[in-house]
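Backbone shapes recur. Consider a single case.
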Amino acid sequence: MSKLLFQGHGSYRIITNDGVVIYVDPFAGSGYDMEADIILVTHEHYDHNKVELPLKKDSTVIIRQENLKLGTIYNKTHLCGVEIEAVEAYNKNHDKSSCVGYVIRFDGITLYASGDTSLTEDMKNKLPNYNIDYALLPIDGIYNMDAFEASVCADYIKAKHTIPIHMKPLELFDMEEAKKFTSDSRLIVKDGEEIDL
């Protein structure tokens, strides 16, 4: 069974049924001891791009926003049986030209790694058609949308499960903040907790 480990802040690790290891926005917490097949970086802020943290193979592929976004064109790629599609990410603190989210498809699961963002046009128009199983949304209300806006975004996206992340600056997790996210799809995952997908 595929698994997701929430490492804290905006960092998490996915392991597919075939043992493909994917790190998203490495920075926080622990759990970097498995060799990466794929490392995804949504943008180059220091709390999302510590690609030196995960163990690597000679074949490890690091994907940054410029690898899948060419101007206004968002592309996709296939690696290790995983499809990775770039989508919009932006707000007043994160320019659309230098940030992306990723829709990751594996094992019949569709997961939306939003990166740092607020409400986007893709959330309104594209993602509702993707039948997303898991969406991970920031809720800090400082650099990104707050828990209320994230709940609105979740209503647009219509994921089966929405996990609030990126709650307070540089803190791994905060239950009080997590509970402010009130979407019916809410799934609270604490830092260091691994769930079956």
Q: What stands out?
A: The chain has a mean pLDDT of 97. Helices lie at 65-68, 121-125, 147-157, 175-180.
